[in-house]
User: What shape does this take?
Amino acid sequence: MKQIINFLRKLQANNNREWFMEHKDEYKSAQARFDEIVDQIIYGICQFDPSLTGISHKDCTYRIYRDVRFSKDKSPYKTHFGAFMCPKGKKSGFAGYYFHVGTGLGEGYPFQHMLATGDYCYDKKVLQILREDICYGNGEFERILDGCPAFQLDKEQMLSRVPNGFPRDSKYSEYLRLKSLCLLNTPSNDFMLSDDVVNQTVDLFRTTKPFLDFINRAIQYNKEM
Assistant: This one.
């Protein structure tokens, strides 16, 4: 992992095409190492979540080139590597496990390292189903969250009030106001540089499987409607 982080830090300091082309072999080597780690993580996840069976890094990773058409930041390259590991691959529409290696230099996305489970972009019908499951699920959602102590529910994007059709005084009103459902963990550089980072990552993701099952149950139901 040290090789990957070192490359990303150098790219962050030299985010231009000239430098990148001069160091393209270094990029390819770092990307290959990341792909290898992702495949190891997928294998580990498959031991407790067979829904990922049959996918590889090719189905989960992203290009390093940024789409700058609608961005004020015209830096041409991402300074992180990420893999979204979900059933049938990242374009399937299912929620999944996200493994993100940043530079570790700076706060927030994309600088911090990140483990996440869920997704940030749900169909409106799926969100409706999820809110119904939360509101009328007899505490199932809270029990699931209690089983993921190393993760926090991302509450950055919330509605100003409970959506129409749900009781304003619901004990789950905070969850009902969420625009997306995603669990986050921001591991340290020491975690990422550990020789046991793959196993530790898999163990953390294992605790979030009930959360992912809760999300993908709603997505699958919507697909079948």
